[in-house]
Amino acid sequence: xxxxxxxxxxxxxxxxxxxxxxxxxxxxxxxxxxxxxxxxxxxxxxxxxxxxxxxxxxxxxxxxxxxxxxxxxxxxxxxxxxxxxxxxxxxxxxxxxxxxxxxxxxxxxxxxxxxxxxxxxxxxxxxxxxxxxxxxxxxxxxxxxxxxxxxxxxxxxxxxxxxxxxxxxxxxxxxxxxxxxxxxxxxxxxxxxxxxxxxxxxxxxxxxxxxxxxxxxxxxxxxxxxxxxxxxxxxxxxxxxxxxxxxxxxxxxxxxxxxxxxxxxxxxxxxxxxxxxxxxxxxxxxxxxxxxxxxxxxxxxxxxxxxxxxxxxxxxxxxxxxxxxxxxxxxxxxxxxxxxxxxxxxxxxxxxxxxxxxxxxxxxxxxxxxxxxxxxxxxxxxxxxxxxxxxxxxxxxxxxxxxxxxxxxxxxxxxxxxxxxxxxxxxxxxxxxxxxxxxxxxxxxxxxxxxxxxxxxxxxxxxxxxxxxxxxxxxxxxxxxxxxxxxxxxxxxxxxxxxxxxxxxxxxxxxxxxxxxxxxxxxxxxxxxxxxxxxxxxxxxxxxxxxxxxxxxxxxxxxxxxxxxxxxxxxxxxxxxxxxxxxxxxxxxxxxxxxxxxxxxxxxxxxxxxxxxxxxxxxxxxxxxxxxxxxxxxxxxxxxxxxxxxxxxxxxxxxxxxxxxxxxxxxxxxxxxxxxxxxxxxxxxxxxxxxxxxxxxxxxxxxxxxxxxxxxxxxxxxxxxxxxxxxxxxxxxxxxxxxxxxxxxxxxxxxxxxxxxxxxxxxxxxxxxxxxxxxxxxxxxxxxxxxxxxxxxxxxxxxxxxxxxxxxxxxxxxxxxxxxxxxxxxxxxxxxxxxxxxxxxxxxxxxxxxxxxxxxxxxxxxxxxxxxxxxxxxxxxxxxxxxxxxxxxxxxxxxxxxxxxxxxxxxxxxxxxxxxxxxxxxxxxxxxxxxxxxxxxxxxxxxxxxxxxxxxxxxxxxxxxxxxxxxxxxxxxxxxxxxxxxxxxxxxxxxxxxxxxxxxxxxxxxxx
Amino acid sequence: xxxxxxxxxxxxxxxxxxxxxxxxxxxxxxxxxxxxxxxxxxxxxxxxxxxxxxxxxxxxxxxxxxxxxxxxxxxxxxxxxxxxxxxxxxxxxxxxxxxxxxxxxxxxxxxxxxxxxxxxxxxxxxxxxxxxxxxxxxxxxxxxxxxxxxxxxxxxxxxxxxxxxxxxxxxxxxxxxxxxxxxxxxxxxxxxxxxxxxxxxxxxxxxxxxxxxxxxxxxxxxxxxxxxxxxxxxxxxxxxxxxxxxxxxxxxxxxxxxxxxxxxxxxxxxxxxxxxxxxxxxxxxxxxxxxxxxxxxxxxxxxxxxxxxxxxxxxxxxxxxxxxxxxxxxxxxxxxxxxxxxxxxxxxxxxxxxxxxxxxxxxxxxxxxxxxxxxxxxxxxxxxxxxxxxxxxxxxxxxxxxxxxxxxxxxxxxxxxxxxxxxxxxxxxxxxxxxxxxxxxxxxxxxxxxxxxxxxxxxxxxxxxxxxxxxxxxxxxxxxxxxxxxxxxxxxxxxxxxxxxxxxxxxxxxxxxxxxxxxxxxxxxxxxxxxxxxxxxxxxxxxxxxxxxxxxxxxxxxxxxxx
Lengths: 1008, 563
Description:
The structure holds 2 protein chains of 2 kinds.
Chain A: H1 2-23, E1 30-36, E2 47-50, E3 56-58, E4 64-68, E5 74-78, E6 85-88, E7 95-98, E8 107-110, E9 113-116, E10 124-128, H2 129-132, E11 151-154, E12 167-170, E13 183-186, E14 189-190, E15 201-207, H3 210-213, E16 224-229, E17 235-250, H4 259-273, H5 279-287, H6 310-314, E18 319-331, E19 335-347, E20 364-377, E21 382-398, H7 402-411, H8 435-440, E22 443-461, E23 469-488, E24 493-496, E25 502-505, E26 516-538, E27 541-554, E28 563-576, E29 580-591, E30 600-611, E31 624-638, E32 653-655, E33 660-661, E34 664-665, E35 669-671, E36 682-695, E37 699-716, E38 731-752, E39 755-772, E40 793-795, E41 798-803, H9 807-811, E42 815-816, E43 826-828, E44 836-837, E45 843-845, E46 853-863, E47 866-876, E48 879-881, H10 885-888, H11 898-902, E49 932-934, E50 937-948, H12 951-954, E51 961-975, E52 997-1007
Chain B: H1 2-19, H2 36-40, H3 45-53, E1 76-78, H4 86-89, H5 103-120, H6 125-129, H7 141-164, E2 167-168, H8 179-184, E3 187-188, H9 190-207, H10 224-238, H11 248-264, H12 275-278, E4 285-294, H13 296-301, E5 312-314, H14 316-321, H15 353-357, E6 358-359, E7 364-365, E8 368-369, E9 392-393, E10 409-417, H16 418-433, H17 438-451, H18 459-465, H19 468-482, H20 489-495, H21 499-502, E11 507-514, E12 520-528, H22 543-551
Antiparallel strand pairs in B: 1-5, 2-3, 4-10, 6-9, 7-8, 11-12
Helix pairs in contact in B: 3-5, 5-7, 7-9, 7-10, 9-10, 10-11, 10-16, 11-16, 16-17, 16-19
């Protein structure tokens, strides 16, 4: 054993030697050495560089290195987590060097700066770049689900490539009128992050409490997400190349009954619809038609009696996606750089055809990202950074939208063919459309978006004036150009009649020769920021202070005023002995939304932290290795108040809407909503208490409790003032919402020999309640919004016997205002007992539509080159109305699932669904307790298995790392909607929206 | 050092408060928003403000989705069982749910009128800036605009009055920030509102020219238009629902108001019945809401095999009311054969207006035959929205439109036409003094008969109609036939207090079956239920409004039966 190892070592050393001489063919004689820690354990991957030269080397697993350096040169030994050490080369002898572990605390990104763990007073959570890359999705928002406590990521649309942005909420929904989504900044400039490549992101920080968002003042009340892109570092250049290929496949698609069953149930539905006909009349009117005889669909004559699976006919079971990224990162003491290029190409699920040669009839999303970041120390005191990023996004789709296409798949009966026997496109008077026509024969759209984003920063040390003082500036520009072009076409469908003739619906046209350009948008955003920072330690006293001024403008295409922001903000932090920290933050900023003179607000925050584990009574405690208490209280605001238009303080008059006199239209003008001169921002008083705990040096735990009082929410005078005013009434800031909750996050790392593992988990609860809103007295108790959560849903309560037994039952019950009622229809409770079922009978039902609980759990381990990682996510306390064809079966000429058909009134002894009907039935399908379902889920969100080739195999090729991986996204969900084959998160996916997909992806990453 | 910080801070502060203090102001060069001053001082926008108000005039084709008000009384059944018009028929209206609630919308129109009238005052912006000149091309144009605003304000109040009875007459622009003034506007009883409307009509008339200044003004009201509205308002005010003591002077006022229009000779009956509805401007139209490139009437009402929804299904009750084209009124049912109700084989047809009002089995539409027999392409049960009575509406539809090709045409919803004035006049005179005015009454009624291809009353008719009750019956019948589906009968049944009888029995349909040899069998059946609770004589004032007043500690009277 020993000998082999030694031999190997020798070979390695030799290899290294050869390699370094090959790479750095210089006359200097090679130096040998070994790097160990103070216990004598070898340290690998230590960068050894010759100062002022480009020569570099790194240590192997045994800590050995070889480098060429002449006498008098200085070697720099550096590795993250260790204190860098210099060594002056005196002679050729073996260098035995010890480096020490850095006891520096971890640092966290906060608003416009960094804070060490002990001086951090705010509630934040972070997601590392590494975690982001485990989800093979193009839209970044979908990759952060479950990774951060206090952050709700909710997908509400299907996975149509390029159109699958989720909704984000920090600590839930806190306003019933204003915007509720967080402010997002990329490199300190307000920008969207969702189409960035995970490769270009260094860190992702969620700012939650008042202390964390205080510098955003009027814009921070919904929380803030900070995205920081990668920068270069001092060290040997690292080239990284990743190639991935994956397949997307729909997770759950509705399973509708085949033709034979469909016709059987359709006949039952018709019988219900025509219950005033005698059997004889019914038979002669309907059942005499051979198309209404189920047994004809036994497969013996598929030409006349088809059994079409519309989903299979138009959706591929898999669609490919691929991505490639190349990055180069490195630098010297003087300049550091990071360059990245990423390409994503994602095909959609539609089956494409050769209908129009030269035109892809499917859907596709492609994206090209680049980033180029350079930081240069121009002098000892001046550091300048230029960060240029950009992307091109191309979306190619059929002219018919995904919602329309998928709805058609979900509606068309199996008894209709895709093509008639004469190969014409099939249709009928009721279904005068066909997905074939929609996908292949309505033309296509190309939507092209281009972004160029630049951020230039400068940092000037002003130690000569005051030690620790520096000035800094930022200039950002974002240019966005959007254009859309399309070609369109019309198609007709033909109904094959019993006598063999055809009836035509619609008109055919050939595809347009030229493109029509129908969309164009350009905007330029300019950001300026200037500031002073002070950071200095006086013995045990640490002081950090910032003050900044910012302004930004974003142009709007056309004759419209720019969107503008302006403000001043600052922060002072004082820490004593790494035990006590107190921080004061403020923002004084304004919004164009409010009238002059009352457009600026002052938003102060105070926070503090006490590191108990640095106190003598806990120091060196083996059980409690870290303990910190922190608290914050402050005022923040939300200037996006939800009015829906700009400048609500002005009176609004519009031109247009004249009237036709004589033989022509005349000029028109009219008054808009009455202005609200005193309108102001939403204000939120937020408090937070946090505990940070470390146990046995292996377990870290953060617990936060918050209580936010959002007030001055705009609410309507229209609930209070009579309508005889005759105009939309002005807004007033009189609503309020209280939000409360907590977050716990846990992290445990351990190494057992070659095996190491990580467990990370988070759980968050955010509840809210409307505490005031303009509501009149005298309403029924269940009608008040006040006292309910913001996203509470209302609907009718279904009585305990659910459905009307017979006509007498109907006659003796309250009358419905929602349409005709027959036996077997839903029986609603008449809450106010006025004999009428109407909107006054709506009561709060189920849970809010945004979940109150969020969970995430990551398990990871690695063993001898293998690594494994799995992320479970979940939500709870969310309800949704199941308002689609899958549960509403058959009505309005829809299809039906056997689950619904078999359990419907008149079919089942114990019916769960109303009687079958082919007609539009608005009575049964009101939002009601019958349709609201709990949509909690627990899901395997991502899973990844990787294998890195042993380093020694790679040395020859000058490759530092090759890792193969396979990962998956959206793999498996445990929830209550499985029996309907609907997604619990997006129940309309695959029914009225593009389907939800699962992705399986393989890839390789090479590092040089 | 300290000085530097202070200086920098001060500089920053100054930057923010001084030079940059206006940074958040809108760039005036990019400000495209219009304000009050700009609107009323502009030669296009100032008159445009009035033009826009016309959009609030109700259009009876489009007020209930695909349904029409006629389907809420005994004129027709709506084939769409889920339509909200059905709430009337099953007595499911309440203060929260009323498909015909126009409260908010009419007050919006009224506000616009008041704003416009304010700016026409001597100190108003229009007057001061001369954005609408006092005289243009020899017409007192500013007065004309003022007259129109008065007229529209009267019309909107009338729309509220006939529905809710006790309403708020709003004649000034209300400021939501002045709650005291807002809540001080008083609810008035029916008679006072009717008087205010009549006054506004008079004011309007004074300011208006007798004829259109030129053709570009066509469609705007002229001097007689508001007076025609006044005739209707006064007729309603004299009717049994609002005149419990049968005060004859009210009928006199109504008759006089109608006579003014007749005497003016500005209007006449259009030569044919059908073209009255299919041409935008004709001598019979007094006032109409116009819509362009429309085919909603056909989309909603064409028989189902013509790609229409077949919504409006006239009742057998209405069909039966059309007499045969007989010599006399008295003998109008003489040649009726229940085995051949549409005179397919019979030489003597029903009166002309029948086929221009109703599509029946064997009616011709676009070179094909409407087949409403059971099993026919438009027949009962052929599709979910196929006719429920055996009939479709032929009045108003433009038979030249092909829906498959998306054809459209320009049509008007006639709000007031001359025939109504004649009927108003006859009714009011008959109620005021039927003996003294007998010849005046028969003369106007005969003019309507003549247009319908019916002969004048003969001696037997005259003998019969000398009786006030018989004459009243005739006038009610004539209103029903002449004004079918035009949103008259729904209100007429109410003002006559006939609704509680007429609308408390099922409406009938005609079920036609075809035997193997092609012969039709006709069976009258109950097509749909009708229920009418006496509280439905007045709509409930919307509950949200009642709650607002009570919340503010103010009194508001809800209509009887709705508390």
